[in-house]
Design goal:
Blueprint lengths: L4 H28 L10 H55 L6 H22 L2 E2 L2 E2 L11 E4 L2 E4 L7 E5 L2 E4 L4 H6 L36 E6 L4 E6 L6 H14 L5 E5 L6 E5 L26 E5 L5 E5 L6 H14 L5 E5 L6 E5 L7 E4 L7 H4 L4 E3 L2 E3 L9 E5 L4 H4 L4 E3 L3 E2 L26 E6 L2 E6 L5
Antiparallel strand pairs: 1-2, 3-4, 5-6, 7-8, 7-18, 9-10, 10-20, 11-12, 11-15, 13-14, 14-17, 15-16, 18-19, 21-22
């Protein structure tokens, strides 16, 4: 292609103009200190810049809102502190005025102080912040309270003034004047438990403050962990405390648990299970229960069986958990050592171990503890000579019972769920207070002292005489 002089001149002129344009752009950036001076400099960048400016403007507004909200909070704190001071002074005056040492003039002075305090409270209720009433809700141009001859009325509403403090958060800054100044301070009797006592005729439906108990299916199980016997008790149809007690005691006796009964506890608000010590053991009796709950020390677990003819056997009982474990391990280890017809069992009285040598000529074995060892044989009551019978001492097991659910929550609702090794007082049954409840049943059966109750409202007095049936 032929390049003409005019084409060369045009290219030079074009490049010079571009260089001049870039130079002018850089000069503008240097003089303004900004990379972007018009939208065409960087369309995407100018969009981001505008977003940043909007964000900064919003943050400035949020900061202003936060400052304004803080002003409301500081004002509210100031008013509440003033209210506390006025109320404290009024209480002190009321206590002082009740002293018999003050005459009528002195009490009038206290009354005047109380009235002045009420005036101050009214002024606080109509406080303003920047010309706006702080306790009027949305009606910030109207005083929150108006005083009349017979009292004070609230003229505001329940509106909550909110300030935006973030793109997704706002806070309420005002307090409702009616709630702060006029809300009832105390409902007499609220939160007070008169502790209605239970008795035999108490309805199960009145327990747990009227929620009653779950009697579906109503089955519970009581286990004697020493004797390994159980009693299943059906409480599905019972309606009163007496019926529950009767059913439990009858079923315990029927199933052979003769050393446990239930009654109403002395606190008159729960059930009490009272076991008696019968001293009996079975194969299922836990070793932890013997010796009145002290159990045995199985640190080494060894006892020594010996005779004068050279027999010397250490029987290892370290893995034993129950009475049956001791019997099984003792008998099997003697047999393994070649000693036959010497067996351990529970004695006829059911109170301890017995070891019998039924060989034609007794082996004259003895049982003792190893030297420098724990007294395991002594703790098991079997130290001595098997000649041919060694009757161990009583193992004195502590009582051990468990009450369990068989579906449902009946035991838990009656407050009697769990295992116990002595007297077991159930949980509080919280009897519902009814209009028909006897005063003698209150305070867990201690009753109340009747007399006059005096109530005041301003200068009006009312007397209620609880001793007067009319």
């Amino acid at each position: 292609m032929r390049v003409t002089n005019s084409m060369i001149a045009g290219r030079v002129t074009y490049n010079a103009q571009n260089s001049l344009t870039r130079f002018l752009s850089m000069q503008t950036q240097m003089s303004t200190g900004k990379r972007i001076n018009k939208p065409s400099d960087d369309p995407l960048g100018i969009t981001r810049d505008l977003d940043y400016r909007n964000e900064l403007a919003n943050n400035k507004q949020y900061q202003g809102n936060i400052n304004q909200a803080n002003s409301w909070y500081f004002k509210n704190d100031e008013i509440i502190n003033s209210l506390n001071e006025i109320v404290s002074e009024a209480k002190a005056d009321a206590v002082s005025g009740a002293d018999d040492s003050f005459n009528a003039d002195g009490r009038k002075a206290f009354a005047a102080g109380i009235r002045a305090g009420i005036d101050k409270i009214l002024q606080l209720g109509n406080s303003q912040l920047e010309g706006r009433y702080t306790f009027s809700g949305f009606r910030t141009n109207e005083a929150a309270f108006q005083r009349y001859a017979n009292g004070v009325t609230f003229q505001g509403d329940n509106g909550v003034i909110n300030y935006q403090i973030d793109s997704s958060a706002e806070v309420g800054v005002n307090m409702n004047g009616a709630d702060l100044f006029l809300k009832q301070i105390l409902t007499l009797g609220e939160g007070f438990d008169l502790d209605t006592a239970i008795n035999g005729s108490t309805q199960l439906s009145d327990l747990h403050n009227g929620d009653g108990i779950n009697q579906i299916p109503g089955l519970i199980q009581i286990r004697d962990l020493n004797l390994g016997i159980n009693a299943t008790i059906d409480l599905n149809a019972e309606t009163t405390i007496d019926e529950v007690i009767t059913q439990i005691n009858n079923d315990l006796a029927i199933n052979g648990i003769n050393n446990l009964t239930v009654r109403i506890a002395d606190d008159n608000n729960s059930l009490l299970f009272e076991p008696t010590q019968n001293g009996l053991i079975t194969g299922t009796t836990p070793l932890n229960n013997i010796n009145n709950g002290a159990g045995v020390d199985l640190t080494s677990g060894l006892i020594n069986v010996t005779d004068n003819a050279g027999t010397d056997i250490n029987v290892d009982l370290s893995s034993a958990v129950t009475v049956d474990d001791v019997i099984t391990q003792f008998n099997s280890q003697l047999s393994s050592a070649g000693i036959f017809n010497v067996t351990m069992s529970i004695n006829a009285a059911g109170t301890g171990f017995e070891i019998n040598d039924t060989n034609g000529i007794p082996l004259n074995l003895s049982i003792k503890d190893l030297e420098n060892n724990v007294n395991l044989a002594e703790q098991l009551g079997i130290v001595g000579n098997i000649g041919p019978t060694l009757t161990g001492s009583d193992l004195a097991p502590r009582v051990d019972f468990a009450i369990e659910e068989l579906g449902g929550t009946t035991a838990e609702d009656l407050g009697i769920l769990g295992e116990f090794q002595g007297n077991f007082i159930g949980e509080n049954l919280d009897v519902q207070l009814l209009t028909t409840s006897n005063l003698s049943d209150l305070n867990n059966g201690l009753g109340i002292t009747t007399g006059e109750i005096v109530m005041w409202q301003g200068g009006t007095k009312a007397t209620l005489d609880l001793d007067d049936p009319s």
